[in-house]
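Appendix B, example 12.
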Amino acid sequence: MNEKTVLAIDPGSSKCGMALVTRDELGQIQLVWRKIVEPGQVIERMVEARAVRGFELVIVGSGTNSDDVVRNIREDWVGAAILIIDEKNTTLEARERYWAVTKRRGWRRLLPATLQVPPEPVDDFAAFILAERVLLAS
């Protein structure tokens, strides 16, 4: 299995989640970088992500605002490899991932994580889920 790095974007109308994710030679997937940005900042943050680690593929979820995000990437990153994938259930999976990564404190420890909504946006985790789907399938 070859090492591969991808940048995943979960587009939205008011915010976009972004995640730079790598798969090593052993198939282990690692989150390298993540951000939640306004839609107009996606290109700027792609430059930031590229500075952290080069990526071969941009993965974009097919939901809200995906057409605009893809159009902007194609205009500013001519020749970029873009894969548009279905983002069904990514928000629910992102909530679960958030609680797996973030330690619950106080009263939150008493309720099951599945009954709680994270106190902050999880769009970056949704982007991570998109990247995992592609990396695990390839």
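The helical segments are 42-52, 66-76, 90-101, 123-137. The longest strand covers residues 29-37.
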